Amino acid sequence: MLVYGDRERVEDPRERLRAIERRLADAARAPAGLARHAQLVALLIDAGELAQGILDEEMAARGEDDWDSPAARALAALLISFGRAVCASYASRFRGAPLPPPRALERVARLRLPTAIRVRAPEGFVHYAVYPEAYAEAARDLPPPAIVIGVRSIGTSLGAIVAARACARLATVRPIGPPFARRPSLPPHARARIAARHAALVDEGPGLSGSSLCGLAEWIADAGALAPPRIFPSHAGPLGPHASASHRELWRRVDRRVAAFESLRFGDGAPAAALARAARPLIGALDGEPRDLGAGAWRSVRYAREADWPPAHVRAERRKYLVRAGGARWLLRFAGLGRHGEERLARARVLERGGFIPPTVGLLHGFLVQRWLDGAVSLDVARGCERARLLARLAEYFVFLAREFPAPPDAGATPAELLAMARHNTSLALGADAAAVIDRWRARLPRIGRRVHGDAKLHACEWLLTRGGALVKTDALDHHAGHDLVGSQDPAWDLAAAAVEFDLSPDEEHALARALAAASAPPAEPRAFFTECYLAFELGRHTLAADSLTGGESARAEVERLRRAAESYARRLALRLRAA
């Protein structure tokens, strides 16, 4: 199934350098504490994205990575200087740490930089609460390696942490090849650099196959390294379902160094409690320990009966905690480190002013702090919500999103890419004949008029009906920028999602389309194209989520919920295609 995808932003590297300089100046003025530490982590992430973009451009021109190029050396020095600052700040429990020296930035500024780079958002920092500090913990007492190799994208920053902690040289690679069989592309002198030496490999994951890390480990073995490399992944779990037998055996034997999020120390105690205590000026004194609501556990609070639980992609959910403080309940939800979390906070402020989300009081080192709405009921089990009120709220919401959050033309998948996804997923689920019906759109793909950083997840379980009768969106900040191939889309995508999730009649769908048109955001036509693509996407998303789960009774129950949802989307898609 096609579901996931990497989106890239085109940036001016010198503008990114200037942004790093501005943030460094802000950090210099900030008093010691968690906020200053968060700025240092943001600097490391920004520098890592800059390095990824520049080195990917260099690799594209050369056809291989070169660890000895002027850019590779200057960027490695910059990254390690920021890595040292983060490690020192973390070790001091945020009491203060020296800032990176400006000469590392000056050295990069003297390079002949490309006019534009393509930057990929590091998924772990944006979606999965991968904290650089965990890699500092994992590298504790590490025998010094000769070289630390970070896998781009995120390995630029995470590798810098391990290299700084181990006082080692830093290099990065971009493995290439088929998605589940990636290998590095490096010149012969890189093999000589590895021979008879120790190496450490750094990345997030492993994901569906783990081939980036395992393929690099195989290359190191072939180069004659003194010993198998030590591997720094982001979790202690096994390789994914698409891993080869040889990689599974390698993974079983290799020395892996992992520090769980829960092992971090952001002050006294576990990180969730420490962050909640740091939020005292915003929410009051902590009343008890935070409750983990991640991996679908939020449903046990929102729903009276497990039989009513909606399906959840538990392995991909963001970390979240329910906190009692100051006589109220609050939600701490991971929103992203560095500027990624800052962007989510800015969006939350706008949505809160529009009255669409719960009150938001701040951002604490990647976690957004929002009020938990006691007494609110999830819309999929709520009683008494009139249809007219729901339609009016949807229209108001769509118009607000289109007005407040315009997106650049390249922010999401093109209609041709959506069609390729829909055709592939339909073929796997319903067969070649059904996929051929989807293919009828090839000759008349819609022309997207404008893109919007929309909602991108309109399921009924994402809406709450409050005690006062208001409809509030619980999770409206980042699905448009999720780790999937859809991205920000024409307003027609959210309209199609609402039509499916709320079973809108043709008249109701037309009414929402008219409201958008009146606000100068008419959805692209034909809207049926987006509806079929949406059904195929949700079919694929729920199928992959079910395929990713193994385990005991709770996993079996989750798989059943996910399978039922996938089958429902498949039935609805089949009905539409038969009627086409």
What's this, in brief?
With 580 residues, the protein is of the alpha+beta class.
**Strand percentage, roughly?**
5-15%
- Global Rg: 24 Å
Helix % is: 40-55%
Mean pLDDT: 94
State the CATH topology of the largest domain. Answer: Rossmann fold
CATH architecture of the largest domain: 3-Layer(aba) Sandwich
Structural class: alpha+beta
Overall geometry:
globular
Q: What oligomeric state do these chains adopt?
A: single chain
Mind describing the biggest β-sheet?
A: 5 strands, antiparallel
> What is the CATH C level class of the largest domain, in words?
Alpha Beta
User: Number of helical segments?
Assistant: 21
Number of domains: 3
The N- to C-terminal Cα distance equals 23 Å
Count all strands and give the number. 16
Query: For the largest beta sheet, what order do the strands appear in spatially?
Result: 7-8-9-11-10
Uncertain runs with pLDDT below 50, 5 residues or more?
none
Outline the fold blueprint.
Elements: E1 8-11, H1 13-29, H2 34-62, H3 70-91, H4 103-109, E2 117-120, H5 123-126, H6 132-138, E3 147-151, H7 155-166, E4 169-173, H8 188-194, E5 199-202, H9 211-222, E6 230-232, H10 245-253, H11 271-278, H12 280-283, E7 291-292, H13 299-302, E8 320-325, E9 328-334, H14 339-353, E10 360-364, E11 367-371, E12 377-378, H15 387-404, E13 406-407, H16 415-430, H17 432-438, E14 451-452, E15 463-465, E16 471-473, H18 491-501, H19 506-518, H20 527-547, H21 553-579
Parallel strand pairs: 3-4, 3-5, 5-6
Antiparallel strand pairs: 1-2, 7-8, 8-9, 9-11, 10-11, 12-15, 13-14, 15-16
Helix pairs in contact: 1-2, 2-3, 2-7, 3-4, 3-7, 6-7, 15-19, 16-17, 16-20, 18-19, 18-20, 20-21
